[in-house]
Amino acid sequence: MKYVIGIDLGTSSVKALLMNELGEVCGEATKPYPLIQKKAGYSEQAPEDWVEQTTEVLKELVTRFEGKGNLDDIVGISFSGQMHGLVLLDESHEVLRPAILWNDTRTTKQCEEIYQTAGRERILSITKNPALEGFTLPKLLWVKEHEPDLFERASVFMLPKDYVRFKMTGAIHSEYSDAAGTLLLDVPNKKWSKEICDIFGIKDSLCPPLLESHGFAGTLTPEFSRNTGLLAETKVFAGGADNACGAIGANILSEGATLCSIGTSGVILSYEAEDDLDFGGLVHYFNHGKEDAFYTMGVTLSAGYSLSWFKEQFAKEETMEQLLAGVEDIHPGANGLLFTPYLSGERTPHPDAKIRASFIGVDATHTRAHFARAVMEGITFSLNESIEIFREKGKTIDTIVSIGGGAKNPAWLQMQADIFSARVVTLNKEQGPALGAAILAAYGAGLFASLAECAKVFTAYKDEYMPNQENVEHYRKLYALYKKVYPQTKEICESLMEYR
Ligand SMILES: Nc1ncnc2c1ncn2[C@@H]1O[C@H](COP(=O)(O)OP(=O)(O)O)[C@@H](O)[C@H]1O
Ligand SMILES: O=C(CO)[C@@H](O)[C@H](O)COP(=O)(O)O
């Protein structure tokens, strides 16, 4: 029996998943690491924490595997990684500063400068994406402006999982699905954009060589092999961005397939075979982890995070299940209470780092459960704005695969079916993007002839939620009210910035 390992380098933790070639889960281990938030809007992590905890989870998997199989039957390891984070290395490949993460919003000025210098249309035509605070190029320009000495010393930039893979193998690479989120990649032509690098004074050598997601990146260094117990000959394959891997693990590998993922952030993701559709930058347009395929995606920055924040503040000692008990008994609309999930700004459809969240319509009859339901509905309304963009562009969205923490609660899944007005299905294995990473490893190692063949063995749908027409109608009216909150709170939120 052959085995593969998928590693998901997330925002709050790293998870390693051991699967056999039959698609059975044979082990998993998770370890957390902290966020460093020095100022409002800043979000950083220590790359060495990722490496340390990845070593630990692999060590744990190997220890539990002993006696059950041979280590040389582990034929591949691959990655899923939190996107966009900037890691800078010097000439001797030492980390120059903490990584600046995807949810760090310090770069509004750099985004404006990108448009002023290069023009929005030019950026869109090359990278297929708008300049957003979370992306990597604005972070590089922030370092160039605020830490010029350090920028001068940088010899290469890396994305989070690419750095961990470098520490595992000693080889420096990136791959297309993550590179697409840097704003430095010519997405249709799959190469670093010389034009953008030249405009912004970025040396070509700062951009690492690119691989396909299933491409072979190297074998383990003797040190990494010693520290984890894995054989030094173990093959490592490039891996993909977390959303690309989430999509692979949910079998979003052909036209017409749509994904809803509610993790810390939330995404609505749609498979694209073509590189030339025009969404005018309203949604992200990235290379898939499948060769020569793409996906479009709308992002709600604080999706699951809004609910976790609510629990942390108002039900700290309880489990998520306890907090959400009874939410299904409350009528859609939470008795006239609306929530917008802009706890740390927003991306789709309002790229706005300054907007903040609101509860509107608070009444003395509202209980904590009404607030919890309003939070879940607000997150789902926000994701529906991405679905609306896709539908307005002519896409048919009738079935949505729901994954992530948000897919754990049946009331939330029914709410998704009602608000999205679509059939919602769940997966039989809730392993998140680590499953997509394991599929990439299995395909890279040659266990399957294609990603789709592997996904067929590794994944299957489980439950189905059909829209309830009465609720669909009710939510359609509430959604129209929800959409009025952003424009009517934008100016107030901007003025409140000086008090934060
Ligand atoms: N039992 C639950 N019911 C509903 N939502 C949940 C539950 N447990 C976690 N969540 C939501 O899922 C989110 C975490 O999802 P996950 O996919 O693990 O995120 P990430 O990979 O970004 O860390 C939490 O922020 C929370 O909102
Ligand atoms: O910024 C994006 C996508 O563009 C995020 O999806 C991050 O890649 C990480 O998200 P979580 O999986 O931690 O929610």
Description:
The chain has 500 residues and is α+β, with helices and mostly antiparallel strands. It has a domain at 3-243: Nucleotidyltransferase, domain 5, CATH 3.30.420.40. Helices cover 38% and strands 20% of the residues. Strands 18-19-17-16-22-23-24 form a seven-stranded mixed β-sheet, sandwiched between helices. A five-stranded mixed β-sheet has the order 3-2-1-5-15, sandwiched between helices. Helix 2 crosses helix 4 (136-146), helix 10 (242-249) crosses helix 15 (433-444) and helix 14 packs across helix 17. Bound molecules: adenosine-5'-diphosphate (ADP) and 5-O-phosphono-D-xylulose. Adenosine-5'-diphosphate binds at residues 10-12, 263-264, 304-305, 307-308, 320-321, 324, 404-406, 408-409, 412, 432.
By secondary-structure content and strand pairing, the structural class works out as: alpha+beta
Hetero ligands: adenosine-5'-diphosphate, 5-O-phosphono-D-xylulose
* Mean pLDDT metric: 96
In DSSP terms, counting alpha (H) and pi (I) runs of 4 or more, how many helices?
Answer: 17
List low-pLDDT spans.
Answer: none
Radius of gyration: 22 Å
Regarding quaternary structure, what we see is: single chain
What is the CATH class name of the domain at 3-243? Alpha Beta
Organism: Pradoshia eiseniae
Family: Belongs to the FGGY kinase family.
Active site: 242 (proton acceptor)
Protein name: Xylulose kinase
